[in-house]
Amino acid sequence: MRDWPEKIFIVCVCLLIGCALFLPPIAQDQNYHEFADQRPWGVVPNAADTLSNLAFLVAGLWGLWRLAGYRGHASNPLVLRLVSLLLIGVLLTGLASMFYHLAPNDSRLAIDRLAMSLSFAAALGLLVADRVSVRLAFGVVAGFLFLGPLTVWVWIASGNLTPYAVLQFGGVAMIAVFCWRPSLHIRGLNFSGLLLFYGLAKLAELLDSMIFELSLALVSGHTLKHVLAAIGIVVLVSPLFSRARPQAESVNT
Taking the complete model, does pTM exceed 0.85, yes or no? Predict the structure, then answer.
């Protein structure tokens, strides 16, 4: 029974692939590019949505800085490598999202989604390495590093957004299911916190115009989305660093 979580995870991945292949195609709504706050700031168009992506850069750089000075004893080096991959993906996502929001269109959105696919693959790999099976993690990362960009290519080539949507929301559902398993390591990552802030970010995105109006044009939902998603990344990886010092002290004593 030791490997039953691995088998369930593989079945879930197969279900996602089946849904991506056989669910009806959906098209990208062009109204998606019409965000509530389109005010420029100097030479920066859509300034709030563009500059709020600095939150991803701050989160990614903070994480890589903490990782560079990390002196704890990792249960498995693969976890640290996947955290590094995730943080690099977060940095690229911030840059790509900035590029997209300067002049929103499908072509720029594709670049944004390609960057996000790297973070997505790393997050799923971390989930597997932390909660399911270390030996399965490398295959999951490699598989989703292929599938993520493939779904973006399918959307650009055919206009069918279904595979990308299935991969994104199905992957989040898998994190929600497996994050309740106990961590395989001493320093488990905070996937429930990641899900909380991801959910808040998606809610803010859906309520973009409403939040903009209720805040008297102070901030839009999409701007908040970027900040909340970046906080989610910090919340996810922070246990790795917050518990390193006590453990090191206990070893020294």
Answer: yes
